[in-house]
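Input structure tokens:
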């Protein structure tokens, strides 16, 4: 059974990874290498198409391949020209607040808000739903990542 603690640990590792990517902004080669490792370790792209809908996309908003996910985090891929490198902000901290978690034997879902702190100490609130599956080595892998900015009630629908 996947535990709440495993989910919280996976979220902490994910947040630390996003922060680490931003620290590598000045060394593109190292940044690319680390980001590929980050995606390989935390997402299940090697076994399936991952349902990945990142926050700041409008043209190619769904990324079901590793290449698309890496591009979202660090940009620089001509196949995804809208990507500026979300993780290159840079962020100094990522904090998760789970609204609810569903735990099953080899699968779990978590939904809530996560907060990205920039170098000026300002937080950006983002809504998320992450799905996790248990890999053969016992580690959790993300196979669903949906992220969006909160709805602005001042906008016309």
């Amino acid at each position: 059974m996947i535990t709440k603690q495993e989910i919280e640990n996976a979220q902490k590792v994910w947040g630390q990874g996003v922060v680490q990517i931003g620290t590598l902004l000045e060394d593109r080669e190292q940044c690319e290498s680390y980001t590929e490792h980050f995606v390989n370790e935390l997402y299940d792209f090697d076994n399936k198409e991952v349902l990945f809908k990142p926050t700041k996309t409008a043209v190619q908003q769904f990324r079901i391949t590793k290449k698309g996910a890496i591009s979202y985090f660090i940009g620089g891929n001509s196949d995804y020209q809208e990507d500026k490198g979300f993780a290159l902000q840079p962020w100094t901290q990522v904090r998760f607040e789970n609204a609810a978690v569903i735990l099953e034997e080899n699968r779990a879902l978590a939904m809530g808000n996560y907060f990205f702190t920039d170098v000026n100490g300002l937080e950006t609130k983002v809504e998320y739903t992450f799905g996790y599956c248990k890999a053969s080595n016992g580690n959790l892998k993300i196979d669903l990542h949906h992220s969006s900015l909160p709805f602005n009630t001042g906008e016309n629908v």
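The chain has three helices and five strands. The first helix runs from residue 4 to 23.
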